[in-house]
Amino acid sequence: MSSATGERFQKAHEKLQSIEASFTKLATDRETLIAQFNENKLVKSELAKMAEDAVIYKRTGSVLATTSVEEARSDVNSRIERIETSLDSVQEKITKTEQELKAQREAVLAARQEFDKEKARREARTQ
């Protein structure tokens, strides 16, 4: 692919691969956030069942410290809010990346068609 159209096709294809890699990472990030969200929702439901005077242990580094049920609930609610914010952000990025993917796929297709036409013209001239 030494022609200019071949190089354009190659660059468009490389950009498409880069966008696809970004999309894959975003999808993985979203899956991780969803798992964290579900885990924290489960913890929240378990904390809701606990008596107000229950003893809760919170791990801080390698140390277990006691905390109140109310503080544990507050911590879990804060984590859920942060995860929801992160999920919204990742979803926006995914939507944007999907649009970029669509546009780049069209660019690759157009570059490929242009390259194929040029190749056919060269072959027709050599015959």
TrEMBL record:
<dbReference type="GO" id="GO:0051082">
    <property type="term" value="F:unfolded protein binding"/>
</dbReference>
<dbReference type="GO" id="GO:0051131">
    <property type="term" value="P:chaperone-mediated protein complex assembly"/>
</dbReference>
<dbReference type="InterPro" id="IPR009053">
    <property type="entry name" value="Prefoldin"/>
</dbReference>
<keyword id="KW-0143">Chaperone</keyword>
<dbReference type="GO" id="GO:0006457">
    <property type="term" value="P:protein folding"/>
</dbReference>
<dbReference type="Pfam" id="PF01920">
    <property type="entry name" value="Prefoldin_2"/>
</dbReference>
<dbReference type="GO" id="GO:0005737">
    <property type="term" value="C:cytoplasm"/>
</dbReference>
<dbReference type="GO" id="GO:0016272">
    <property type="term" value="C:prefoldin complex"/>
</dbReference>
<keyword id="KW-0175">Coiled coil</keyword>
<dbReference type="GO" id="GO:0051087">
    <property type="term" value="F:protein-folding chaperone binding"/>
</dbReference>
<feature type="coiled-coil region">
    <location>
        <begin position="73"/>
        <end position="114"/>
    </location>
</feature>
<dbReference type="InterPro" id="IPR002777">
    <property type="entry name" value="PFD_beta-like"/>
</dbReference>
<protein>
    <submittedName>
        <fullName>Prefoldin subunit</fullName>
    </submittedName>
</protein>
<comment type="similarity">
    <text>Belongs to the prefoldin subunit beta family.</text>
</comment>
